[in-house]
Specification:
Keywords: Cytoplasm, Methyltransferase, RNA-binding, rRNA processing, S-adenosyl-L-methionine, Transferase
Subcellular location: Cytoplasm
Radius of gyration: 20 Å
Distance between the termini: 46 Å
Pfam families: RrnaAD
Number of strands: 11
Low-confidence stretches: 1-17
Shape: elongated
Mean pLDDT: 91
Largest sheet: 7 strands, mixed
Number of helices: 10
Strand content: 15-25%
Strand order of the largest sheet: 6-5-4-7-8-11-9
GO molecular function, one term: 16S rRNA (adenine(1518)-N(6)/adenine(1519)-N(6))-dimethyltransferase activity
Protein name: Ribosomal RNA small subunit methyltransferase A
Length: 270
Amino acid sequence: MSNDKVHLGHTARKRFGQNFLHDHYVIDNIVAAIAPSDDAIMVEIGPGLGALTEPVASQIQHLHVVELDRDLAERLRHHPLLSSKLSIHEADAMKFDFSSLRTDARPLRVFGNLPYNISTPLMFHLFEQSAGIRDMHFMLQKEVVDRLAAGPNSKAYGRLSVMAQYYCQVIPVLHVGPGAFKPAPKVDSAVVRLVPHQVLPYPATRIEDLHRVCMEAFNQRRKTIRNSMRNFISEDALTALDIDPNLRPENLTLQQFVTIANWLSAQGQG
């Protein structure tokens, strides 16, 4: 493959979005932020060449890893230091049932340097399974972390912000430059901590309706919500909910999005 780069005897596969972390200072900071412990079931997504796997596994008794690349999974199976500590799940994390790893009462703690090309849908997949997860630490494009953490009235605020904050507390942890990776990506990265809410602050009656409200609103983010949501809620209904129809989607709080979604659920239109 002409676009692949060889690193430590492994070819970085562009289709998997592989960029391997190699900066030891950055790695030490990430592991410190994760703070591995045996009081939870630790799970790594996309261990790659083991940059995080090795230091995390050195601090705990056992680690689950989910790896799609067969060559990398095979390397880990024969790793002299790691093989006895790992349960290797050769699978697509986007389709993986993370709850199946909970074989006892301990919660899951999930971490990984996520492939940029699937990071957003993968997080949505994990949000849906967040009930059994204590926390998640992910390396992502800095732009994605900015969107996860953004509040109303900012350009970065959008569907990802609302849905992430519906499920989790979002805490940016660390900025990481391109030089920490081989091959170096063209963008800056950042580590984020996602802590699922023990109790949802604003529960949606039907999560599908919240998805729909956010999708339709932010697909037309320059329009007022009077116009972007006209397919399912009237101006009068918005006013009755004490929400100004002249606001744009980026002006609405999470609570207001949930209020509209719950109104929609109550109409039986979802």
